[in-house]
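Postdoc handover notes: sequence design on the structure in folder B. Input tokens:
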């Protein structure tokens, strides 16, 4: 149990640090555009760190409740904000430091209240439904991106969050004694791939479509609330006996703090020119974003704003 909690927190830290490294790599590339920025060493290191964070998340999902892991992943926003303040010299307002503190407190309370993960890994029908749902969400996101104009960023961000949440559910539905051959035959293994990549692409489109706050806020809600409820209702996740109210409070506080930080990247990008903030146009030739897509990482292309 303690091992799983530690891994979930490590995943949040790794993903938050990866975001800052990727932003740093983007800022180092002043003339070659986003493709060349991907080959800058901070960006490459950030991708490697992000991968380690995902692996830590996968292992954590196998040993602690879904609601704890998903809340921890959402808290990577707080890690991004704190590390960006030190590395990228981003100025956090008192309210944002308060949100970081709220996330930390909420996670601490949630870790104390969380019980063991449920013993159910679903039946064959549920696994096939998970795969079908992952494909359906990607198709729905494609249709929304092609047809919806108003509130498109929020809707796409919400669908991306649902896809990311489905990634966690797919990992949980893999049998404990599964083999390499079994993985290739497991519908939920393909659901993890489809929902993970699909959510990533949908989040990119959401952040390109409008407000980073709307897209990221909807994503945080989508990837935390429904997977947590799914784990409790269908997979048997629980809190410690008598700790349910405390667990709910910790979950709400941590997610509220993450939602408050959803405006973090947007606020910095709109800093007045000449103010010294990292959102100035001259900082990175249009690459002043603080976040790279996935797991709760706000990003916004300044030219779309």
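Designed sequence:
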């Amino acid at each position: 149990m303690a091992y799983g909690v530690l891994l979930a927190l490590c995943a949040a830290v790794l993903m938050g640090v990866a975001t800052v490294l990727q932003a740093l790599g983007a800022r180092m590339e002043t003339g070659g555009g986003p493709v060349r920025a991907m080959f800058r060493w901070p960006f490459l290191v950030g991708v490697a760190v992000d991968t380690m964070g995902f692996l830590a998340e996968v292992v954590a999902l196998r040993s602690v409740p879904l609601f704890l892991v998903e809340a921890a992943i959402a808290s990577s926003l707080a890690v991004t904000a704190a590390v960006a303040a030190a590395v990228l010299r981003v100025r956090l307002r008192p309210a944002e430091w308060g949100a970081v503190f709220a996330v930390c407190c909420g996670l601490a309370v949630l870790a104390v209240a969380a019980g063991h993960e449920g013993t159910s890994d679903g039946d064959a029908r549920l696994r096939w439904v998970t795969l079908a749902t992952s494909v359906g969400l990607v198709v729905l996101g494609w249709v929304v991106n092609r047809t919806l104009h108003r509130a498109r960023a929020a809707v796409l961000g919400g669908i991306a969050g649902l896809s990311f949440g489905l990634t966690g559910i797919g990992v949980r539905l893999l049998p404990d004694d599964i083999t390499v051959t079994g993985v290739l035959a497991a519908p939920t293994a393909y659901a993890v791939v489809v929902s993970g990549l699909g959510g990533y692409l949908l989040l990119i489109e959401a952040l390109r479509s409008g407000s980073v706050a709307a897209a990221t806020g909807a994503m945080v809600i989508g990837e935390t609330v429904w997977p947590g409820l799914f784990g409790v209702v269908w997979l048997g996740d629980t809190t410690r006996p008598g700790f349910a109210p405390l667990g709910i409070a910790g979950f709400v506080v941590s997610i509220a703090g993450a939602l408050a930080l959803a405006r973090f990247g947007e606020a910095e990008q709109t800093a007045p020119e000449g103010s010294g903030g990292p959102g100035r146009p001259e900082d990175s030739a249009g690459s002043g974003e603080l976040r790279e897509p996935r797991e709760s990482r706000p990003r916004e292309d300044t030219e779309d704003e």
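Context for whoever picks this up: The chain is about 70% helix and 0% strand. Don't rerun without checking with the PI first.
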